[in-house]
Every structure is written in structure tokens, then in C-alpha cells.
Specification:
single chain, 349 residues, alpha/beta, Rossmann fold, seven-stranded parallel beta sheet, 18% strand, globular
Amino acid sequence: MKRALITGSSGLIGSEAATFFDARGWTVCGVDNNMRLDFFGPDGDTSSNLKRLRRVTHQFSHEDLDIRDREGLAQLVERVRPALIIHCAAQPSHDLAQARVFDDFDINAVGTLNLLEAARHTCPDAPFIFMSTNKVYGDVPNELPLVEQPTRYDYADVSDFHGIAETCRVDGCLHSLFGASKLAADIMVQEYGRYFGMPTVCFRGGCLTGGSHAGAELHGFLAYLALALVEGRPYRVYGYQGKQVRDNIHAHDVCTAFEAFCENPRVAAVYNLGGGRANSVSVLEAITRLEAITGRSLEVTHVDQPRRGDHICYISDLRRFQGDYPDWQITRTLDAIFEELGRCQTKTA
């Protein structure tokens, strides 16, 4: 029997992974204590995702466990003895980290170390998948020459067309405290791969999205934008006239990347994982497209000061992962993502 342990199992990627692997015959143990409710209030509450998982899955069990509980996590890993670990639990907000510095680091960095050690002692051969972030690169991507277009920024140099590669440096820059805590975890995951020979991977995610995302103002770009539009909330755009660009990847395509790695794991792998150029969009462009889909108008307030360390234009270069796993590809287009978000938020409004 194939057993998977998934942390953050009630969140966007964790719940998608739980459903995905359950449907493929895995027994899934999910770990989640709904810290998003504490972080973001009712907008961040993931209890509805847990209810959905219990309804639609066949071999899923839930553990209400905090990954900062080192002993409890070690005991769980020893009991489950998973053949696959997917680590998605995190304090996920670039902005919130400055107000919750110890929670941010203890969850993102120390919690990851707790899980790595438990895996090393119990199931060192199990692929260890870590959901990292593009914020590990800090504001280095802003050093690339950019051109300002009517609705977005883009790379000025044709050699940068595919976006940010894994060779982007991670030092000598401003990360945000969130970026720093995730980078600490990212490097530790790599080190457990190199030092102990464990099959580990860091997926440095761009904007992750999908209908199960509990978007909040401080986290979840497209999901919160759709929520604000449908509920008539004012929406604040921070800096760059709304021309900042993100590439968006649907949670399903993240899970197919997980599956590809699981079937052919490597040691200390690092991959950028986003929607790529085809799924890139600026804030202004996203507002226009969602307004067209929902038939509603968004009340927008522009704040001149951008978020500290924020990326002006970030597109994930997917060529390293696609080179190692040529059968993997993006299947959910940006248009499909917008349509799904518009439907899901309209249903819940």
C-alpha cells in the first residue's frame, strides 16, 4: 500500500495533492491545524477544504498537528511510514511575516527541519517534496532591465524572455522575512539531499492558484482579487501602477509535477515552478479579465509605495524542470484559471 504524508493538507496545494494522490490509489495522511485562520481571519479559513476532502476522498485521514511540534511530528512519521512526503505547510505571506517573525521562522524553517529529521530517521528513501517560493531570490529579479508597456512591465533583454532561472542568486538582496525563512528551509532541504543522499526537491513556486484557494489580502493574488470583485470589496494595488507581473500555475499542474518527481526522484533537486510566460499577467490585466468574466466592476485604490522586496516582473523559467521531465506540461491556461476563479467565488458570495 502506497502511503503519502502531506502537510498543509487543507491549503490550496496540499488539498489538491491529497485529492490527486488519493484518486491514484494512495493512502493519504494529511497534516493541518488551520493556522491560516489565525493568520488571515475568516478569509483564510481552510475548514471548508477539509470538509471537501473528507467527502470526496477514499483513503484520506486528517491529523490536527502543528509542524512545530517536533516530537508529535516524529511520532506521526514513524507511525505512517510514508513512501512520499509533500511538505506544503507554511506561513505563506510576504507581508505578514514582519508582524509574526517568530511564527514565520518557526513554522517555515524549524518546522521544515522537524519534518526532514523525522523523514531521515524513519523513511530516508521516500521522495521529500518541499513547496518553496520564488521569494528565495529576494528582489534580485528587479535588477533585470525592464520595459514599461501600457498594461505591464516586461523584460527588455530578449535573453530574459523565458524568465527567472534557478541560477538566479539568492544573496546580496532584500528578501522580506518570509523570503528569508523559506530560503533557510529551501537550503536545508537541499542539504539533507546532498549530505544524507535523500531524494529531495525544492519547487520554487510562482503564483499558485486554483478554485480551492482561500485568498486573503496579504496572500493569494488571483483568488483574493476574484473574491474582492464578487463581494464588492475595495482592492488595493501596491506600487508600480498595477503593472507588476506574475506567472500563475494551477494547483493541478503543481501536482502533476509532484507526481513526475515521485516517479523519477533525484537528490537535492531545485526547480522553478510557475505558469511560465503563457500564464503571466499583470495586476491591471487580471482586473480587466476578471471584470469581463464576472460582469462587475472593481473599486481600486492605488497605493504609491510598493511592498518591500516585491517583484516588478516575475516569470518562472520552466526549462530545467521540463528538461528533466519532458512529459510534464502546463495544462490549465490562464483563461481557464480566470473562469474557474470567477465561478468559485460567485458560488461562495
